[in-house]
Amino acid sequence: MHRSLKAYYAQHHHYPARVVILKTSRFQDDEASGFREALKEANVAYTELVWVSESSPITTYREGDYPPLRGTVIGLGNEALLFTRGSVPVYRTYPGLRVPRPLLLRPHTLDTPIGNVARDILALTKMNWNSTQFDGSLPIPIRAARQVGKVLRHVPVGQKETTDYPYYL
């Protein structure tokens, strides 16, 4: 987190006001504590630590022939189901091939309402400049992290890696 904040500061000459960390595994308490400590040192006002579970045991259906609408959010206490794929009213159909599976958003730390976080995650599913698909199932931070991980496994230990995104496409 310190390296990320330092890189952000070098580029923008200030620290971010809000940091959202999305993971596809649970946050460990000491890990989350470390994140929060580093963010506090940088005076980051809002912190969201969210476990994004791709294999939700819960799904929903709606009346009619089509699955739930893309962007449907269902609150489950402090968690939420988010349909990042689904029926699209402007197309009057569902553009997918399979029944969409919602993401289960399981926050560890939230400084903003879960509905706002879900809206932001939905917006991040549209941010894939390498595709014309408007409704990716995962937000770009998770997809990009997986791409970067595939490349970084080939970098020798001790060698400084580049932070320029085009190297990881």
Write out key terms for the chains shown:
alpha+beta; 169 residues; 17% strand; globular; 28% helix
Largest sheet features:
5 strands, mixed
Give the CA-CA distance, first to last residue: 23 Å
Strand order of the largest sheet: 1-2-5-4-3
Q: Topology as H/E string? A: HEHEEEEHH
Helix/sheet category? alpha+beta
Mean pLDDT: 87
- Tell me the overall shape: globular
Helix content: 25-40%
Tally of DSSP β-strands: 5
Percent of residues in β-strands: 15-25%
Which stretches are poorly predicted, pLDDT < 50 over at least 5 residues?
none
Radius of gyration from the alpha-carbon trace, in angstroms: 18 Å
In DSSP terms (H or I, runs of 4 or more residues), the helix count works out at: 4
What is the topology?
Elements: H1 2-12, E1 18-23, H2 29-41, E2 46-53, E3 73-76, E4 79-82, E5 103-109, H3 114-124, H4 140-152
Parallel strand pairs: 1-2
Antiparallel strand pairs: 2-5, 3-4, 4-5
